[in-house]
Predict the 3D structure of the following.
Amino acid sequence: MTTTTTELTGEPAAVPEAAPPPRRRRSGGLGSYIAVRFLLIFPTIFVLVTTVFFLMRTTGDPITAALGGRLGPAELAERVAAAGYDRPLFTQYLEYLGQLVRLDFGTTLSTNQPVTEVLADFGTATLELAFYALVVAFLVGIPLGRFAAYARDRWPDAVLRVFAILCYATPVFFAGMVLKLVFSSGLGWLPASGRASTRSEILIQTSVENPTGIYLIDAIKTGNGEVVQDVLEHAVLPAVALGLLTAGVFLRLVRTNVIGTLGMGYVEAARSRGVSERRLLRKHAYRPALIPIVTVIGLQVALLLGGAVLTETTFEWRGLGFQLSEYLQARDFVAVQGLVVLLAVVVAVTNFVVDVIAALIDPRVRY
C-alpha cells in the first residue's frame, strides 16, 4: 500500500497499489511449432492410407477386379491365393501397413512394375506441369488481385471477382478443351497435346547425358533453341488450363488481404500525412498481403495434383495423372492405391515445408 495526504486533515490516506499487469501466456516457439507440424504428417497419412485401402477393397480383391474377365475360375482362384487376397481383410490391411513402413508401395498388376518406379519415371512430368501452373497462377492472380483491391467496388473489381469465380469453378478438362479448340484447332498457334514433338523428344533422348525427365531442363542441355521453344509451346495450354484454377484463389486472396491491410492503423496514419493511394498500395499494403499466399500454397499443391489427372489426360501429358487414369481404366487397383498414397505423402510433406516457411516469414504463425 502507498500513502498520500488528504486536503482537509492533512492525514495520510491509504491508496491501493496498482495491480500488476496480467501475465501474458507464452506461445510456443518456432521449434515446438515445427515439431507439432511434423508429427501431424503421420496421422494424416495414416487416415488416408486406411481410407484408400478399404475403399479399394469394396470392389473385391485387386486381381479379380483386373483379370476377372480374362482368366478362368481355377486360374483366377490360384492367382488370388498366391497373392494372399483370400485371407481376412484385416490381416491384409496389417500386412499392407507393414509394406508401407518398408517403403514398399506395391507392384502394378498391368505392367508388373514397382509403384516407386512409376513415380520415378512419370513424377517429373507432373512436377514440371505443376511448376508451370504455379507460374501462371502467380502471374495472373497476384497482379489482378492487387488491381481489384485498388479498384474496389468499381466495375473492374466486379469483373475480376466474377473472373476469379469462373477460374475456380470451371472444370479443368472443360477449360483445356476450350483452349485446344481456340488456340490449337482454330488459330493453330499452339500444339494440342504431348510434352514435345517427336523430333524434340528424340533429340533430348539421344543428345542429353543423364536426362532429368524435366523436358525444359533437358531441352536447355541440348543447346538447341528450337527444342526449347518447342517444349515451351507444348507447355502453354496445359499450364494455363491448370494454372487458372489456382489463379482465381490467389486473386481473391490478394484482393481481400490488400483491402484489409489498407484499413490498418499505420496505413491510415500514412494516409493522413498525405501519402498517395498508389504509394500506400505499393509500399504499405501489397507486401504484407502476400504473406497469406505462402500459407495456402501447400493447399494449392493438393489442388494442382488433383487437377493434373484431368489436365494430363486432356492434353496427353504423360505424367502421374495420365498414368493414374490408365491404371483406372485397366482396373489396376494396386497401382491406383500405391500412387494415391505416394501423392498423399508428397502433399503432406509439401504442406509441412510450406508451414515452416510461413512461420519463418511471419512470426505470428505459432502455437
Remarks:
- The chain has 15 helices and two strands.
